[in-house]
Every structure is written in C-alpha cells, then in structure tokens.
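for the writeup, i need someone to sanity check this before i put it in the appendix. the sequnce is what the collaborator sent (i think, or maybe the updated version? ugh). structure was predicted straight from it, no edits. if anything looks off just tell me and ill rerun, i have time this weekend
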Amino acid sequence: MKILLTAHHLGDRFEWMLMQFCKGAGCVELAGMQAVSKRSSYTLLRPLLHLDKQELLQYLLKNSIKFFEDASNSDEKYKRNEFRHNYSQPLLKKYLSGIKKVLSIWMRMSKS
C-alpha cells in the first residue's frame, strides 16, 4: 500500500473551506480535507489538520527541527494565497478557538 503524507494543517483546511464556500460548493466540499483519504492507488494522510500553523512552528523551533516554506506561499497571484492572506489568516488570528472547534466537529462527523 502506498501512502502520501502531507503537512496540511488547520489553516490549509480552513482556507480550502472558504474557497469552496465562495464557489457555492455543497456540504461535502465544505467539509474539505479529511485526515485520511483513500485514492485509487494510494492513501493520503494529513495528520496535522487539527493544529494551527503557529502551533506547528513553535514545536519545530522548540525542538530545533529544520523546515522550509515554499516561496510560492507568499505570491498572491495564486487564489489560495489570496484567500490565505486576506481572509483565512485574519479570521484565524481573531477566531482561532471557534474555528478549531467547528473543524474538529466536522472531522468527527466525517468519520461516522
């Protein structure tokens, strides 16, 4: 069995949900990224969806773990970055605990 492990986190999931909402997507699309997604030839694992990026960065710095950020993440010519910088990051900064609560409920519901 092939497994693809990603570092998607709560901010990525919230940004995806906002983008889907603005496109007029349905409930399944709004639920967005799942921690485990079985694909035809592999399984996609996203074990960090419950953590905010700042929590991840603090852990990495505290434990002297090297990391890098793709330079394309700051380029707003990409729609995901426009949403990240203008919508999801400000909302996460102001309402992190509420957003975490809703997304954790969605994750539990999607497992049922």
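Residues 27 and 88 are 19 Å apart (CA to CA). The first strand starts at residue 3 and ends at 5.
thx in advance!!
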